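In response to reviewer comment 3 from the previous cycle, which asked for concrete evidence that the modeling workflow produces usable outputs, we include below a single protein chain processed end to end. The sequence was submitted unchanged, and the resulting structure tokens are shown without manual editing.
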Amino acid sequence: MNEDRTVIDILERVRELRRRKRCPNCDAVVSVRGFRGEYRWECVDCDALGIGYPSRSAALDAIQRRQG
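The workflow returned the following structure tokens.
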């Protein structure tokens, strides 16, 4: 653990990471899965779907872009 970080800093980071995994349509949890080098995200509640991403981080970035 980094000496310069406080508990509040770490909790804020966790909160931001969780926010990245929210559906842009309904704000439910999103599942990101990869198969043979292609990643997709899928909402567990409303069945929204994003496919064809080259990496997990690209899929998460696409979710953030759709959220605005």
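DSSP finds two helices and three strands in the chain. We consider this sufficient to address the reviewer's concern, and the full set will be provided in the supplementary archive.
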